[in-house]
Amino acid sequence: MSAAMEPSIGSGRKGLEELEAKALEIIKAHGDEGIYQHELWKTLGLDSREGSRLALRLLKKGLIRREPTVHKGRHTYKLYIAEQTRQPVSVDIKIGSVIEVPCFTCKNLERCHIGGFFDPTNCPILVNWLASKIARLKRSMSS
Ligand code: SF4
């Protein structure tokens, strides 16, 4: 990635968060090869002072790691996404509110589609279930 981004980042905390998010996105896109920090600054439209501050913030948060290296005879750093940032995110989804939808246990689910013989837009099982949910909701709202 070499094209400079438009400096469209806002100011204040939100601006910093956006800047960090963009930086992480760019670093992540460079994968195992990493990115020279000056390339990141250039891409983000930052000077070296602003860029160094940004890198330090990301380092402190444990979102990136950096390794010293030499580029064209000059000492610099390469930036990488931290291992923990690469870990897949585990999301705990509660399905209690949707598990009773009749489609989950319907033997015709595989054959059900709009325009088909089994069609969710006119399925009596689904319509009756929805009607009972609506009636229950109305009763609870009126009491
Ligand atoms: S819409 Fe009706 S037929 Fe289709 S999967 Fe749901 S319950 Fe089954």
TrEMBL record:
Highest taxon listed in the record's lineage: Archaea
Regions annotated as coiled coil: none
Family annotation (InterPro entries): TFIIIC_Bblock-bd (IPR007309), WH-like_DNA-bd_sf (IPR036388), WH_DNA-bd_sf (IPR036390)
One family name in Pfam for this protein: B-block_TFIIIC
Ranges of residues in domain B-block binding subunit of TFIIIC: 19-81
Protein name: Transcription factor TFIIIC
Lineage: Archaea, Thermoproteota, Thermoprotei, Desulfurococcales, Pyrodictiaceae
